[in-house]
Amino acid sequence: MNELAKELSKNIVNNDPEIDQRVARGIEENRKGFGEIELVGKDGQPVKGAHIELKHVRHEFHFGCNSFMVGQFKEQERNAVHDEAFSKLFNLAVIPFYWRDSEPQDGALRFDKDSPFIYRRPPADLVLEFCQKYDITPKGHPLCWHHILPKWAPLEKAALAARLERRIREIAARYGDRIKIWDVCNEAICWNPFKVEERMPDGHVELAFKIAAHYLPPTSTLTYNDYACWDWLHGDYTPFYMLGRHLKGSNVNLGGLGLQYHMFGRPGKEMLAQTQTQLNARHILACLDQYAKIGVPLNISELTLTAHKDLGDGQAFQCEMADRLYRLWFSHPATNGIIWWNLIDDTAYVNPDNSSQEENQYKGGLLNNDLTPKPAYNALCRLIREEWSTHATLEYEKGGYNRFNGFYGEYVAVIKTSMGEFRKTLKLSKGSINKFKLTLE
Fold first, then answer.
1. Element at 346 (helix H, strand E)
2. Are residue 68 and residue 46 in the same domain, yes or no?
3. Which of 3, 56, 109, 258 has the maximum number of C-beta atoms within 10 A of its C-beta?
4. R_g (Cα) of the chain, nearest Å
5. Beta carbons within 8 Å of 375's beta carbon, 6+ residues apart
6. 64 class by beta-carbon count within 10 Å (0-12 exposed, 13-18 middle, 19+ buried)
7. Cβ-proximal residues to 320 (8 Å cutoff; 6+ apart), any chain
């Protein structure tokens, strides 16, 4: 890395004993817990003794990525490499439901897996097949966004509101029982109501949430997503905080808040200014502490970490920042997920109307364009699959201290007894009692 990269990363990666201690303690306290096991035979009688090996196979915390490149390559070999890299690291996939692309003509829904091809917009049915194959949790994004309205959308507000309700009703009828997490509304803090191309019904955020809550199952998690969440921290008068508090008090079933973290901007003066805000560990934690007061889970909803050529060894910079930021966010009690935004270099958003908004220059993927892993990908694999994974053994005794400590998530328990060997699954979950009575039969 060059001197510019070192300057940009100094308030994230440099040793800060207070932050280091908080992060280490936070991971231990917020991401791990104790479980208690009781073994009984098929006759219901207690088992006297056993040797139990517990292997953590899936995190409860959401480590995700957008699924915008699922099935996008003409070569099946490349699709297979993409799928393997995705499923090895992530347990959540963001499915695109952008209105302009999921309904390019009024009533012409692009949900079937054989729908007409649109780059970076795989049909929802295709992505759901991918999720089912690899046991990945799907998340829909977004139901309502002022920025990408279809060209045919009504101009009159009441007609647009009615059409938005129809859209959400149709999506809920088709996917409500298969997709349980939804970004209901997107980036309203920077909405411009005076631009006709951004026209929306009055109170469109609250309206979208109320429509979604009406048509989607009550078990659905409905979230709000925005990028205006790191730079404008003014205590209880922070815009993102005030909107979150407003939604929480508006009876709209707010289930979470998504905080985008895009490291955009050519390295230089623009990014150097962020060393006091977005590129500052203390400031990031202060933001999370502030938003946690709203009382709903937080997730890092869209993550881009630059590997720009102006940083010298940009991939080393990206790797170092990824390792540190994941630890920071994983440690906080209010967070429940981190979602990387583009898995592969040169597959990011391209604004056809303004080439200056070209995002591919930042090289924010975890894989190179040829699908080989970058250092950041390998670093995250080590964190998520190795350092933050539990492999425990327990010498079980009837009436004994039959407890284990591990990261929250799903476990496979291999139980060896005088009656034979048994294989069971259990889920250690944050906020649960975590007592497991296992019947060996």
1. none
2. no
3. 258
4. 23
5. 315, 316, 318, 319
6. buried
7. 1, 9, 13
Burial class (CB in 10 A: 0-12, 13-18, 19+), 423: exposed
Under 8 Å between Cβ of 190 and 198: no
Residue 305 token pair: 């970490």
Q: Quote the domain boundaries for residue 425.
A: 31-56+395-440
Please report, as a single letter, which amino acid is at residue 322.
A
Would the pTM count as exceeding 0.90? yes
Tokens found for residue 364: 């924010």
State both tokens at 41.
């035979």
Predicted confidence (pLDDT) per residue in 240-257, tens digit: 999 999 999 998 999 999
Tell me: the pLDDT tens digits for 374-415? Answer: 999 999 999 999 999 999 999 999 999 999 999 999 999 999
At 268, the pLDDT band (50, 70, 90 cuts) reads confident
Residue 22 domain-assigned (yes or no): no
Look up residue 259 and give its amino acid: L
Count of residues in the chain: 441
What Å distances lie between residue 360 and 284, 319, 349, CA to CA?
A: 25, 18, 7
Q: Given its phi and psi angles, is residue 439 left (phi above 0), alpha (psi -120 to 50 degrees) or beta?
A: beta
d(CA 168, CA 160): 12
How far lies 84's CA from each of 71, 81, 288, 415, in Å?
A: 12, 5, 33, 30
**Residue 25 within any structural domain of the chain:** no
Q: How far apart are the first and last CA of the chain?
A: 58
Q: Is residue 231 within 8 Å of residue 264, measured between CB atoms?
A: no
- Alpha-carbon gap, residue 307 to 40, rounded angstroms: 54
CB atoms within 10 A of CB 365: 28
Question: How many angstroms separate the CA atoms of 229 and 261, rounded?
Answer: 9
